[in-house]
Each structure stands twice: as structure tokens, then as C-alpha cells.
Design brief:
three-stranded antiparallel sheet; 406 residues; globular; 15 strands
């Protein structure tokens, strides 16, 4: 079986975990701090706060940026449901908009058109003409490791006095020019799930250059206290600290922090290898453009390829195209090749349809990508021969399905 992914783990991670276990200090401590410093340094930001997942990182970032009930937040439809769930967890309402089906990222043109049609300015706020809610801003997703058009989104934010958070779950190491995620002037959140470039099993991190936001996130991560257990242990640990705000237990363990520290030492090599893998897939799929759309990368962008996602052209009827895509994925599985749907369209998921009244066909591009995208295996140790096998089978099966429409 050629898996969809495989974490790049070596003896160094095992030794680092062993040292933590032998130390007797397993909860958040020095190894988490070291991991935070390493990620912040790599991405060129001042502050980093490790959490249990990217989802909880997003939730903390949103709360720290004062997202709350009575506000609306623009997000893309073609993203993992965690983006929308984090918004809902704050009490705010997600406004789910369409994407650019070349980049798979939120459409800046679509955002501008929607704002002009649905909101009006009142005392430096954008207020929804129908609901009366104010527009907080946008959560911009860097989908599959390709940065969104941050210049356009910043222009929109400045024009309408909006805030921006980057959902960079897939995008550690991604950049535009020399500016990494988190370095565009916004709070950004990353993931260390095993499908990401580096992993701590589960885990996430908030990246920011804003000291005030960082302090809020750190406190909320720890039940609302800025005094962590390791700080208490070093000082007078007999009394519990005060809790000046509402908070959560979203702390990362030192076991995970130790793994993360070793993974960070490999990150640049991993990103370089993923770029090589993507280039090989591009070569092997060249000449199939009428059937298989390979990832698009604008000039000056560095794509970290958390996933290598293609879009299949299998007919204009969406349901038929979806059935054919799913059939191809089943047949690839039978051939020993794991693939995945690129991601889903949130506006089509039952909870968001029922609660907010979205219709499946209302967002054309997200709907199409939900039905026609396929993620191919990407991991450091995949061989060229395995990639050739993957692409040979994909082309054969896709051609076979495409011929059925003629």
C-alpha cells in the first residue's frame, strides 16, 4: 500500500521522548517553550503559543481578537470544517463564500462583491442589511499549503476596517516572497497533525507579532491564568494562581514539544523534498491538462504541499463527476494507492445547511471542487517508481471514466 502520507520520524524523536519520560515532567514545560521558539524563529514572528490542535489555536486567536456573538465572519467554503467550527465556538456567525478554483483559496473578488451587496457602513462598522450583525472580518485559509492573496485581503481589510486571521493549518513554511505565514501582519494558526509537514501527533500553534494578543492567548490556553504549572513548580507552588479571565485547558505536553523540536530540525529538508515530489508529479501528469488539473502556484509564492491536490474533469454534471471521482478513488485503493478527497465544501455539510440555510449549488466553485478534487500520496520517503505507479493508474482510470461520457 502506498499511503496518503507517512510522518517522517527517526530515532531522534524517540530519544527526545525518552528523555522527557525519564525527567518526570510530562506536561507543558521547557520542551514546549523550545518548540515555540523554533517555530517562531523559522516563520519570522515574535511570539508563538502551542496548543492542543490548530482548531483550539483558531478558537483562542478568535477570542483574543474579540470575535463574539452578534458578529459575522467571512470564511471560504472549501476548507476543513474546523475553520467554521472555530468561528461558531465564539458565538459568531460564519459567512461562507466561494473560492477561486485555481488556487482553492477564498476569492477576493467574491469577498468584495458580497460586502458591497450585503453590508452598509455605520460608525466605522460594516452592518449586515438583513441581520443587523456587524462584520468582524475574514478568516483566510492557506489551502493545501498555498498562501492566499494576502495583498488583496489586506486591501479589503483596510478599506472596510476589518480584521484578518490566517488559518495556516496546512501552511507551515509557506510564503509569498520572503514573508512566511504569520508574517503578513495577522495572527496565524498552524497544525501539527500527522498529515502536515511536521507532526507532534496532534497539536497546533498561534503565531503573532502582537504582544497583547499573545498574552491573552497564553492565559486562555491555561484556564485563564498567565502562571503555568512549570512556573509554579520553580517558585512557590503550594498555592493556586489567580484566574483573571475565562479560559481552557488547551496546553501541549512536553512529550509533544520534544517531538516538535526534533521535527523542526528536519523542516526545511522536508519542505524541499515535498517540493521535489510535487515537481515529479507535475512532470508525470504533463499532457493530461484536459483531464487532470495539477496544483497552480502564482509567481513568487512558495507552496509547501501539505497535500498535492488535483481536480478531475469528468463531465459537466456535478453528481456524475463526483460518482466517477469516487469510483476512481476506490479503484486506486484496490490497486494499493491511498488517496483522499481534497477537502469538503463546508456549506454542504448537514450542520451548516440546517442551521444557516446554505444550498449545495449556491457556491459553484466550492461545490465543484468538493466533487472533483483528489489528493495524491505525498511523504518524504515516497520513491519516483511509486509516483510513476500512482500517476499511471490515475491517468488510466481517469481516461476510462472520461471515455464513458463520450
Amino acid at each position: 500500500m502506498i499511503p496518503i502520507t507517512k510522518p517522517y520520524i527517526s530515532d531522534q524523536e524517540s530519544q527526545a521522548v525518552k528523555e522527557v519520560l525519564e525527567s518526570g515532567w510530562l506536561v507543558q514545560g521547557e520542551r514546549v517553550k523550545e518548540f515555540e521558539r523554533a517555530v517562531a524563529s523559522h516563520e519570522g514572528v515574535k511570539f508563538a503559543c502551542a496548543t492542543t490542535s490548530c482548531t483550539t489555536a483558531l478558537q483562542l486567536a478568535m477570542l483574543a481578537e474579540e470575535m463574539r456573538t452578534g458578529m459575522e465572519v467571512i470564511i471560504p467554503s472549501f476548507t476543513f470544517v474546523a475553520t467554521a467550527n472555530a468561528v461558531v465556538s465564539t458565538g459568531a456567525t460564519p459567512v461562507i463564500l466561494d473560492i477561486d478554483n485555481n488556487t482553492y483559496n477564498l476569492s477576493a473578488d467574491g469577498v468584495e462583491e458580497y460586502i458591497e451587496e450585503h453590508y452598509q457602513e455605520q460608525a466605522e462598522l460594516l452592518v449586515n442589511k438583513t441581520t443587523g450583525n456587524s462584520l468582524w472580518g475574514m478568516v483566510v485559509v492557506h489551502q493545501f499549503g498555498l498562501c492566499a492573496d494576502m495583498e488583496r485581503f489586506h486591501a479589503i481589510a483596510r478599506r472596510y476596517h476589518l480584521k484578518v486571521i490566517e488559518d495556516a493549518a496546512c501552511a507551515l513554511g509557506s510564503k509569498i516572497g520572503n514573508r512566511h505565514i504569520g508574517g503578513f501582519g495577522n495572527t496565524a494558526c498552524v497544525s501539527f497533525h500527522p498529515r502536515k509537514s511536521i507532526t507532534t501527533g496532534e497539536g497546533g500553534m498561534v503565531l503573532t507579532n502582537d504582544a497583547e494578543i499573545y498574552e491573552r492567548v497564553v492565559a486562555m490556553r491555561n484556564h485563564g491564568s498567565q502562571v503555568n504549572s512549570d512556573m509554579r513548580h520553580k517558585g512557590n507552588g503550594t498555592l493556586l494562581p489567580s484566574y483573571p479571565m475565562h479560559g481552557y485547558n488547551f496546553r501541549m505536553t512536553d512529550i509533544q514539544g520534544a517531538i516538535g523540536c526534533e521535527q523542526m530540525k528536519k523542516l526545511d529538508d522536508i519542505l524541499g523534498r515535498r517540493e521535489e515530489i510535487a515537481a515529479i508529479y507535475g512532470q508525470l501528469l504533463a499532457g493530461q491538462e484536459d483531464l487532470i488539473h495539477t496544483p497552480y502556484v502564482p509567481e513568487g509564492y512558495f507552496h509547501s504541499y501539505q497535500s498535492y491536490v488535483c481536480r478531475l474533469e469528468l463531465g459537466k454534471d456535478r453528481e456524475e463527476a463526483c460518482e466517477k471521482r469516487n469510483r476512481i478513488m476506490d479503484q486506486l485503493q484496490q490497486s494499493g494507492i491511498q488517496t483522499r478527497q481534497g477537502t469538503h465544501a463546508v456549506h454542504k455539510l448537514d450542520y451548516y445547511k440546517k442551521r444557516f440555510g446554505y444550498q449545495a449549488e449556491s457556491l459553484k466553485n466550492a461545490n465543484q471542487c468538493d466533487s472533483t478534487t483528489i489528493a495524491l500520496p505525498v511523504y518524504v520517503t515516497i520513491t519516483r517508481e511509486e509516483q510513476e505507479y500512482v500517476t499511471d493508474r490515475l491517468i488510466h482510470l481517469a481516461r476510462k471514466q472520461a471515455d464513458k461520457r463520450r
